[in-house]
Amino acid sequence: MTVLTDETRRAAGPRSAARRRSVFLTGILIAIAIAVALSLALGSRSVSIEEVAEGLSAWLQGQTAQDIGAIAVQQRIPRTVLAIVAGAALGLSGALMQAVTRNPIADPGILGVNTGAALFVVCGIAFLGITSTIEYLVLALAGGTIVAVFVYVIGSLGPGGSTPIKLALAGAATTAALSSLVSAVLLPRIAAMDVFRFWQVGGVAGADWSTLAIVAPLLAVAALVSLLCAPVLNALALGEEVAAGLGVNVNAARIVASAAGVVLCAAVTAVAGPIAFVGLMVPHVMRMLFGPDQRWLLPASALGGAVLLTLSDTIGRLLGYPGEVEAGIVTAFVGAPVLIVIARRTRLKAL
Q1: In which region does residue 102 sit, left (phi positive, over 0), alpha (psi from -120 to 50) or beta (all else)?
Q2: Which SUPFAM superfamilies match (predicted)?
Q3: Residue 149, Cα to own-chain centre: how many angstroms?
Q4: How far is the C-alpha of 57 from the C-alpha of 50, rounded, in Å?
């Protein structure tokens, strides 16, 4: 019989965790491939695997497909790409928000970032007549940033500083107030309401390459900054005093990570509308699979968000046939019960 020494057990622990993470990572990558295939194949007109291959081949060669099914595939490619990019950004943003605030129910929606971006976009539509993606993007970034700072300041007032419950309450109150302002701006302006109501639901149906070209560089920079923050966020999880003892500038780390999270969320909100619950659900699932190490959790949350939003968009097309249900409605339908489960399990404890 083999006797395991303490040193052997300690060495086996990290190897076992690494193998488990590798298996989960492989599973997520396979899930992304499946989600992409389903997104390209399913919709108002379902296509065969051969038509998917033909459409992709023609697109890669810069040609227009001849078969109707292959043409449908080509038309779905930018939508699928936006779903992957937007889902990844929202999942990564949610993981950052939860790490920075040490709040298990933090996400861009609960902390008011989505609503702040929406309010500024509404005001731009109603009072400035904005129509371009760049204008949407600038206003969404401004609104998301201002509201995120406001919620953090309000949640930090009083004894104890920025506790999870205070931040959640400040975000909920701010979201309710800003939602009322959005309604107040829109109700007397029917034309603005018509423009806004489709955007407000949240979805990727209006994807095109020009929109992706505008937001992709911004999202890429924010994502890179987020991933570089992983070691610092691991230190913050040990507590502010321990992190400071390890040489971490706590305030600077929080500002940089929070800014990256706000940019990720606001940029997606500008082009796809305020899609809720992705940033809340995905990091929790990934934390159960990969553990709390941010070096694994952040990229896993991005991949998980891409899977969730791409599948939600595909499901919405099937549920609303011959029309479609926007992806934001599907994620909200799934996310509401998940939020209840999370609240019951975590009991609002800090991470």
Answers
A1: left
A2: ABC transporter involved in vitamin B12 uptake, BtuC (SSF81345)
A3: 19
A4: 10
| 23, two tokens | 């298996």
Other Cβ atoms within 10 Å of 180 Cβ, number = 10
Q: What is the pTM of this model?
A: 0.85
In the block, tokens 């095109």 appear at 208
Does residue 322 have a cis peptide bond before it, meaning omega lies within 30 degrees of 0? Answer: yes
Q: Is the dihedral of CA 337, 341, 342, 347 positive or negative?
A: positive
Q: Give the mean pLDDT of 292-305.
A: 93
Tens of pLDDT, residues 134-149: 888 888 888 888 988 8
Q: Is the confidence at residue 258, as pLDDT, over 50?
A: yes
Contacts of 117 (CB under 8 A, 6+ apart): 139, 140, 141, 143, 144, 147, 265, 266, 269, 270, 274
Residue ranges covered by each domain of the chain: 77-346
Query: Which amino acid, residue 316?
Result: G
User: Could you tell me which CATH number the domain at 77-346 has?
Assistant: 1.10.3470.10
Q: Which tokens in the block code for residue 118?
A: 């929406």
Is the pLDDT reported for residue 153 higher than 80?
yes
| Structure token digits, residue 72 | 């449908």
Q: Measuring CA to CA, which residue among 302, 271, 313 is closest to residue 41? A: 313
175-198, pLDDT tens digit by residue?
A: 888 888 888 887 777 766 666 666
Q: At what angle do helices 68-101 and 250-272 cross, to 10 degrees?
A: 150
